[in-house]
Hints:
The protein is α/β, with parallel strands linked by helices. The chain is 29% helix and 26% strand. It has helices at residues 14-35, 44-50, 78-88, 110-119, 137-146, 158-171, 206-210, 275-283, 290-299; strands at 59-64, 67-72, 94-99, 102-107, 128-131, 151-155, 176-179, 192-197, 212-222, 225-233, 236-245, 308-313, 316-321, 329-331. The protein is globular and about 65 Å long.
Amino acid sequence: MGAHALHEGRDDDRGDLDDLAASARAELVRVIEASGAWDTDPAWREAFEAVPRHLFVPYYYAGAVGGQQRLWGESRDPRTRERWVRGAYADAPLATRVRDGELLSSSSQPSLMAAMLAELHVEDGHNILEIGAGTGYNAALLAHRLGDALVTTVDLDPEITESARRHLAAAGYHPAVVTGDGSRGVPERAPFDRIVATCTLTTIPRAWLAQSRPGARILTPFATGLAALTVRDADHAEGRFLHTSAYFVPLRGGNRPERDVPHLGALPRRTRDHELLRFLLALTRGSLDPQEAYTLWEREDRPVRERYGITVSGDREWAWLDEPTGPYAWPLPAT
């Protein structure tokens, strides 16, 4: 199907759009595969081949001169519809809800989603909780792999959960979609074998541990990285950060991150925007001032993310460098 077919302004171009979507989806799968995102669990390829991302983003916002342009799949302009389809299958995050200039919800970069799903280490029969429903696309990928009955997604905003439910149904998936505070989990659907968050946290909610089976894995954005924790019981969990960076919207509800930015004027200009320093600054906010964090960072030879971890034990929670009981540890806010 040539692109010209979408430029003729026909009212019956739905089949052409579907053909274009299938072609673009196949190309996205090739891009994700080349990135190595699912090297450790290539079974996720089938889910990305099958789930139609464009059904989960009937509109989204793209950067444009002077602001943002809303791309809509039902636009009267065939060129806009074609651009919408192609953008839906780009390996890029898509802004789906913006209010007063604030990003409320998005569809994450597909290769990052693939990497996170692979890092969940799922097995057949696992019961999964997703924190942050977004468009419903990630829940659809999970449901394709594990089945509707084993997937729960929760979001605080009823508009988000309602639209996610519609998108999922349109694509043929029916996992549990719950409106509620994700920091409290979904006790009626517990116990969970895996919990994955698609929003940034500053502390690990105890409710997640209480609703997890022993040995469960929690994967969540934290600071500007991804923390992977193993749950021992309702009071204990521990794990390290993965190597990748991760930038997500904050969790809305009982575990909302602080949004202040530390003053970096005293730090050397050449290092202020270094990604690994920014990660340490975010991880130690409230415990170390920027100069202290910078001094530690240089002294420890600019440590990579995998050297950091998080421990939850009883009513204590802390981040650490190298070892949970080592010399570098920083308390995290109590939940």
